[in-house]
Amino acid sequence: MQRSLHNYKGIKMTKLTAKKVENALPRKKEYKLHDGDGLFLRVRPSGAKSWLFSFSLPGDRTLIRMTLGSVKNISLKEARAKLPELHGQVSQGIDPRNARAAKQAENTSAITMQKLFSDWIEFVKLAGKITPTWIKRHEDRWRLHLRKKLGNLFAKDVTRAHLASALDTMARKGIKEETRKALTTLNLMLDYGLTRHSIESNPARMLKPKDFAASANRSRDRVLTLVELRMLWKALDRTIYLKTKKEYKPAMNPVITTAIKILILTGARRTEVAAMRWNELSLENGIWLLPANRTKNRKAHTIYLSLIALNLLNDLKKITGQSEFVFENGKGNIHPDSLTSTINRLIKAPKNPKAMKRAGEAPLSDMKSFSVHDLRRSAATAWGKYLKIKPYIIERMLNHQPRNKLIAIYQRATYVAELKAAWLEWGEMVEHQVAQDRDNVVPMRLIANKK
Asked: How far apart are CA 419 and CA 425, in angstroms?
């Protein structure tokens, strides 16, 4: 049985039903059907139907009507659901029309997560506080793992649930380290949005890596001994061939193997070595000057090159000397990951049986696994263990800044003589205790002459 009510003129009317709304036919003149609580169905002569809300503000008997939307877009149930909020605004003396206009203006100025990310990346590039390598990692992380789920959402509407869903998806793929770093990316971009008043709060701050089983890994402590470094050096010198359909081809790129040797000789980071430029080198003076925009801490760094390092670079210059990059791959500098893949090829046999048959056993398969970064740690450890270099000199060689800010500000000494002596002494040790037994060495000059 239909409930009845009295409208504001005391006329007895019944509540609307979905069927009544559907069957309301157009007339010569516009008319309205009352549903109660100020809600009307308006039917125009054209047949267009829309919802109206009728109200009067406190202290003002003027009757005001506002359109809520078309029946095509808003059902009877949805129109009724809007009434509590509208009556609440009216009771507070707020004109619902003004509140809606303010909301629309807010949405117009609102930016999506994609726009926020793009703005943040542009700001980071201009600020120059992190290296291009790290910027690219943020961009790749967003593109590969976050954009699909978050990119089209308004930044102001993003909740912890949205972020957690995206990170959970990553965690389920088993990429825990990337999940942890993705949370860092989200925190940084949302913090930027907070300072630009694009959002009211940063929901990522309430999330922790442990929530996604992505806590930071324990610091690696793998250090290669001099014997292991010798095994690696000899493996790099040895020509390893892969069998193709018609012939055997070298599997070890001499440009990349030289880069790995330079990693050992300098203790530099893989990204710094991979993108080494000829104009950063003064081979006559035995100096490699790393500009600030290529270092992790954005501090320029001078590395003194030993005789063995200079010989390697001079040999390589016959191959890549006409290009911008020392370690050129034909399209630019080698990718840092190519150093990692070369190390993996030496210590891990291919999983694919066919590849295993072609490549043979990995020459360092009996050695405990190690990473490219472990070479940097191994060099630093050797500097202290065998050469007795002072810790503060080793920190300078690694381009580490003192943790104590006062020391960092007031410590003006550069220790040029000590730094130079340390690198030269390390070069001599590598030459005599690591790079010996060169029976299988393929001279770089022979490769250059073949070109």
From this structure: 10
Cα(414)–Cα(423) distance, integer angstroms: 15
Give the chain's end-to-end CA distance (angstroms, integer): 95
Could you tell me the two tokens for 265?
Answer: 């000789």
Task: Quote the pTM value.
Answer: 0.56
Mean pLDDT (whole number) for 190-209 = 92
Structure tokens at 150: 């978050």
Q: Report d(CA 81, CA 85) in Å as an integer.
A: 8
CA distances from 18 to 41, 48, 315, 393 (A): 11, 16, 85, 82
Give long-range contacts, CB 8 A cutoff, 24+ apart: 302-306. Answer: 302/419, 303/266, 303/268, 303/397, 303/423, 304/419, 304/420, 304/423, 304/424, 305/265, 305/266, 305/281, 305/423, 305/427, 306/265, 306/423, 306/424, 306/426, 306/427, 306/428, 306/430, 306/431
What was the pLDDT predicted at 216?
A: 64
Any residues with CB less than 8 A from the CB of 326 and at least 6 apart, and which?
A: 276, 277, 278, 281, 313, 316, 317, 320, 333
Task: Give pLDDT, residue 220.
Answer: 66
